Amino acid sequence: MSQAMTRDKVSGDALFILKSLKENGRLGRSNKLAEVKTSLESTVSLEFDSYFFFLRKFHYIAMDREAQLKLTDQGERVVGGDYLDKFTGEVGEFFADQITGESDDGNSTLMQPPEPPATDLILEEPTVMPPPPPRGGRKPPQSDEFAPPSMPHVTAPEVAPQRGFAPAPLPLTAAVVSPQPMQLNQPVSSPSGMSNMSAAGKGQDLDLRYQKHDPIGQGPLGTVFKGKHNALGLDVCVKELKDIFGYFSFLQRGEVIKRLKKELCAQAQVKHPAIVQVLDQNTDVARPYFVMELCKGSLREKLDAANGKGIPVPLAIRYFLQLAYGLRAAHQQGLTHHNIKPENVLFDAYGNVKLGDFGLSRVIEVDQTKGMPQVFVGTGGMGYMSPELMARGKEIGPSSDVYGIGILLYEMLTGQIPGRRSPLPSEINSDCPTKLDPIFDKMTQDRKDSRYPDFEATLDDFYAAFSGKEYLTKGDVILSSEVSSNS
């Protein structure tokens, strides 16, 4: 049976946090929010975030731009033994819905908890992410790499409550090793505690299952590495999302992780030749990562190599159809992408499309109810975003992906991203069938009610236009089985 949560108990926890901050300051230790939370969250009765919000709301602590916490004058006085009745009353007010039992005595006199331990925690200072760049251009801004701090492992024994004062935790037992930055092909410790292979080995062990090799790509939220599944000897792709947390405060990490797990699990359920297969994920480490099938290059590379002239029309149409069928399958399972851009269109060894990174824009989207800020870091290339995505509308569905693929189709055919008064594809590229013009036009209408609602309707019009079966019939996905430099 769970123990009743009393006002004195919660007050004791809050006071313990204040005393810990004061002791850290006296000893010259860091009071960064992330490190304080890691050190103390296992020693308090409720979620650490709740105490933080309470102490900040009632002006017992303050936080600077570097996320360093410090006591206010009022906080100093409470630690010194003043205003304890007021402090306890405010705890009762703030935590009213979480306090389930009565205090041990009618006076609710808060006794001082023991001094926080003088354990020397050796912590790596995390890099502070600069504020996200302002919105306003089509090309997403690039971000530097930022490594989140290594977290110490902290354990604290449970203490039976004593009558008359709030039970404060016993001194922390910290098993901490001085962290080092993770370097490829060097024998340093990984977040999971597994040591790397020797310098003569082939890569760094993420855990017992995977190795991480050289980076093969980088985006605003993380880095993509070539990897290997140790047991199967299978080449895989490993994407570390360490930079994703640079755009949020530490208190929002839990919400980001929850969203990330949801989106990865959803993409893993979609089995289709045109969808990158998610094989595994580990979000319970300092640098969350997920494992995918290994792909060979991106559409962005093909477009860049074409020097603004687009790619051959037969390839553009094949890629368009593969994407349309892949997204139709995803939409049938309730999964939308909303992050369409050439960087997320990858290829298998035979030159077939593989669409990846479903839902990463949802992982970092604004949610005022959870304190999530508005973030634009290039995760959904601006030029491919539908008007409702740009406006962060509530009714965003499959037609937003239709819009993004329509813009992508135009770019593949012409080498350009269309504007409001751009010529139709066939007017720029004479090799482009005029039958594609009205399809592109309807896919990219600003008004949702003027656009195709989904890819089912889009494909209906495509096969009605190409009734000569030059692209087979609806339902037949055209796949290449030949390794070709043109694919």
Please indicate the percent range of residues in DSSP E strands (runs of 2 or more).
5-15%
Tell me the series of helices and strands, N- to C-terminal: HHHEEHHEEEEEEHEEHHEEHHHHHH
What is the count of structural domains? 2
Q: Please tell me what the overall shape is.
A: elongated
Please name the CATH architecture of the largest domain.
Orthogonal Bundle
Would you identify the regions where 5 or more consecutive residues have pLDDT less than 50?
A: 104-109, 117-201, 370-380
Strand-pairing-aware structural class? alpha+beta
What is the CATH topology assignment of the largest domain? Transferase(Phosphotransferase), domain 1
Radius of gyration: 27 Å
User: What's the main sheet like?
Assistant: 6 strands, antiparallel
CATH level-1 class of the largest domain: Mainly Alpha
Record field, number of beta strands: 12
Kindly report how far apart the N and C termini lie.
64 Å
CATH fourth-tier homologous superfamily of the largest domain = Transferase(Phosphotransferase) domain 1
- Average predicted local confidence, pLDDT: 77
Count of helical regions: 14
Sheet with most strands: strand arrangement? 5-6-7-8-10-9
Name the helicity range.
Answer: 25-40%
